Amino acid sequence: MKIVYFTHSLRSCWNHGNAHFLRGILSELIARGHDVRVFEQQGAWSLANLLKDHGERGLEAFREAYPELSSRTYSRPEEGAGHAWGADVVIVHEWNDPELVAAVGRLRARGGRFTLLFHDTHHRAVSAPHEMRAYDLSAYDGVLAFGRTLADVYARWGWSNVFVWHEAADTRRFRPPVEEQPRDGLVWIGNWGDGERSSELAEFLLKPAGQAGLPLDIYGVRYPEAAKAKLRYYGANYQGWLANAAAPDAFARHLATVHVPRRFYAGSLPGIPTIRVFEALACGIPLVSAPWDDCEHLFRVNRDFLMVRDGSEMTAALHDLKNDPELRGILVANGLETIRKRHSCARRVDELLAIAEQIRAPALESAA
C-alpha cells in the first residue's frame, strides 16, 4: 500500500514525543514492503528549536538510527494536501495546522479514494477542547486516539469511527543492551513543559531520589531557570536535550527510571501512560511510576513496574530497587515480556492495517 503521513516533524524529537512512535511505525511499515511518504510543513517549531540549540549535529542520531526514513516539506496547506492524492491510506497527526487538516479533508471529499484518518496523541481534547473542535474532520473516515478515554471524548462529539490506537515501543531500537555494563543511579527523560507536573516532579522524583541515596540524571528541554535551580537544590544533574535514539544507551547506564505522568493523564485521561513507559520497559530498566489509572489493563501493575501512591512510597520503592537485584531482575523480565507480547510497533502496525481494512471494506461494498 501507499501510505502518506502528515506529521509536525519526523526528523526532530525536540519536545515532540509523537516522533518516537511515528518513527517506529513507519520503519515497520517500510520493512513490510509498504510505500511510505512523510510530509511536514516548512519551519516546524520542534525542528526549528532543535536546529537553534544544536545545529545539523542534532539530526545525526535520527539519521544514524533510521536511515530508511525521510520526509518532504511543503509551504502551503493546499500544496501539502496535494501529496495525499493517489495514496491508499492517509494519516494526519493532530499537531498540524487546522488549514492542512481541512485541506486534506477537502481532497478526500472531492473524490480522493484514500482512507483518511486523524491521529490524536495529546490531551488537548480535554485541556483545550475549543482548539480541537476547530479542526474540520467532516470528510475523515475515522479517528485514531491513543487511549480509550480520549476515544470516548470523540464519541461524545458524535464520532462513530473512533479507534483506540495506543503508542508502543520500537523494539528494533529500544531493547536491552547486548552486553550489560555497570549501572548506577536514576535517569529521568522528560520535558519540564508548561507547569503540568512541577510539584509532582518534586514529590515523586527529586525528593525521593535524594532520600534513597541515588544520584539522578535528568534529560529534557524547556527547563526555565527556576526549574534548573530546583534541580540543583535537590542535587539532580541536568544533562539537557537527549536525542530519543540515544535513550536506550542512557537507560542502560542506570539502575532504574521513574514515570511522572502529566496531570491530565493522571486525572482527566486515565489509561494513557505515554510513550516513555513503553520505551523504558522495552529497554529492560526497572521502572517506578507515580499514580495513574491503568483502566485499560495495558500492564500488570506491580509486576511489570512498581506503582506508588505518594512520595514516601516512592522513596521506599527506590530504596528497595537500589538494594534488591532480584527485584530488579523480576521487573525487567516481566516488563520485557509484556512489551514484546502486546506493545511493540509491529503489533501496532497489525492493528493499523486491520483498522484500515475495516474502514475500507464497507466503502468497497457501497461502491460496488
Structure description:
The structure is a single chain. The protein has 16 helices and 13 strands. Helix content is 44%, strand content 15%. Strand 6, helix 8 and strand 7 form a beta-alpha-beta unit. With 368 residues, it is an alpha/beta fold. The strands form two sheets. Strands 3-2-1-4-5-6-7 form a seven-stranded parallel β-sheet, with helices on both faces. The radius of gyration is 21 Å and the shape is globular.
Helix and strand element order: EHEHHEHEHEHHEHEEHEHEHEHHEEHHH
Q: Report the oligomer.
A: single chain
The helix content is: 40-55%
Q: What's the mean pLDDT score?
A: 96
State the low-pLDDT regions, or none: none
C-alpha end-to-end distance: 21 Å
Q: Report the sheet-strand fraction.
A: 5-15%
Radius of gyration (CA) equals 21 Å
Count of DSSP-assigned helices: 16
Secondary structure category: alpha/beta
Please specify the SSE layout and strand pairing:
Elements: E1 2-6, H1 18-31, E2 35-41, H2 45-54, H3 60-65, E3 72-74, H4 77-82, E4 89-93, H5 98-109, E5 115-120, H6 124-127, H7 129-133, E6 142-145, H8 148-156, E7 162-164, E8 186-189, H9 198-211, E9 216-219, H10 225-233, E10 237-240, H11 247-252, E11 256-259, H12 263-266, H13 275-282, E12 287-289, E13 306-307, H14 311-323, H15 325-342, H16 345-367
Parallel strand pairs: 1-2, 1-4, 2-3, 4-5, 5-6, 6-7, 8-9, 8-11, 9-10, 11-12, 12-13
Helix pairs in contact: 1-16, 9-14
